[in-house]
Specification:
364 residues; mainly beta; endopeptidase fold (from Nostoc punctiforme); 34% strand
Length: 364
């Protein structure tokens, strides 16, 4: 900003297209001067100069370093002059969007292009171009801008060959499930890789379609129908058709718990299969207990307890076994002292939730 004198002389050849009574823009060799004052033209004092008198005193003016004058003395149109843009009519673009060579820019009230900031729902890059199909970082948070320049929200987007889920705030989700899909720490959809669920600590293998691999073997690991890694049940498989410990159902479960370095069940003084889940300090051995489990909660490797006086356990003690899998709403088990007598044997059981007291699971 600077002061100007009341009378200013300009070359008439440069001004004849721009200075008329009532205009608010004056062109000089110093640049474009714009003000709210009104100028009046006097008669030329010679063939080269005309004098313009201010009808009112100008307190301040704004200047632009480059004049709106082409080499031939005509005013420039539809072009950039430094950080400013001159429209088709030669006027300075103010408070508006303009398109230049396929890119959109916003010219602010001072005539300069906006950059590194939001204008309404749109973000302008450092060079002033409207952001499109790209990530932007603000306050250490990454946001995704769609093709139309607006912030993405509540949708999947693909960038550089990876899929991301953008939440309602415009940021990507990470380290969590989105339906059947898992988003990694970078936010990218997991593909062809092992991931560990941060909530359950379970490992899953995600295939090329982004879905959990199930009922198959990956890298030597057998995956259950829920995608979790099945425990090594070979210790029980090797005992099929054999009597284990005392031949009772309790004895088979005690043998399996011993193989997992859990509490000693045999000789503990406890005898009821129904109360195995509450008779021992399972947590101190790295196990968890789930009482009254649903079918979906039961997994291969779980130790299951049936209540006393139910179809599988008509007597006082209840019944116990080990889950080897699930199929069509049924449980696949290893049990002892059941229909085949006092030997370890494989059974298929209907799941009746009210008959199941608890399951015990090794988690550490």
């Amino acid at each position: 900003m600077k002061k100007v004198n009341k009378d200013i002389k300009y070359k008439r050849t440069n001004l004849k297209r721009f200075i008329t009574i009532g205009l608010c823009t004056v062109i000089s060799g110093a640049g474009i001067i714009h003000t709210t004052e009104t100028f009046a033209e006097s008669a030329p004092t010679n063939g080269e100069f005309a004098t313009y008198h201010l009808l009112e005193k100008i307190e301040t003016i704004d200047t632009i370093e480059q004049p709106n004058i082409a080499d031939n003395g005509q005013y420039a149109t539809a072009k950039w002059v430094g950080d400013y843009y001159l429209k088709q009519d030669g006027k300075l673009a103010l408070n508006q969007w303009i398109e230049d060579h396929g890119n959109w820019y916003y010219l602010k009230s001072d005539g300069k292009f906006a950059h590194d900031e939001w204008i309404a729902d749109y973000y302008l890059n450092t060079d002033g171009r409207l952001a499109s199909n790209q990530w932007i970082e603000m306050d250490n948070t990454w946001y995704y801008i769609k093709e139309d320049g607006r912030l993405a929200s509540n949708q999947w987007v693909k960038q550089d060959g990876h899929w991301y889920y953008i939440n309602e705030k415009g940021t990507y989700e990470a380290n969590q499930w989105m339906g059947d899909y898992y988003l990694t720490s970078t936010g990218a959809l997991a593909l062809n890789q092992w991931i560990q669920d941060p909530n359950t600590n379970e490992w899953y293998y995600i295939g090329s379609d982004g879905l959990i691999a199930r009922n198959t073997t990956i890298d030597g690991y057998q995956l259950a129908d829920d995608g979790t890694i099945m425990p090594d049940l070979s210790v029980l498989e090797n005992k099929v058709n054999q009597t284990v410990y005392n031949g009772q159902c309790y004895g088979l479960t005690a043998f399996y718990v011993d193989s997992l370095h859990g509490p000693k069940l045999m000789g503990s003084g406890h005898m009821r299969a129904e109360t195995i889940g509450s008779d021992y300090d399972w947590a101190s051995y790295g196990f968890e207990v789930i009482n009254n489990p649903t079918y979906d909660q039961i997994k291969a490797g779980d130790i299951i307890q049936w209540k006393a006086n139910t179809r599988l356990a008509p007597g006082y003690y209840g019944h116990t076994g080990i889950i080897r899998g699930k199929s069509n709403g049924q449980l696949l088990t290893y049990e002892q002292n059941a229909g085949r007598g006092q030997i370890c044997y494989k059974y298929t059981r209907d799941f009746i939730q009210q008959d199941v007291k608890s399951i015990v699971r090794k988690i550490m």
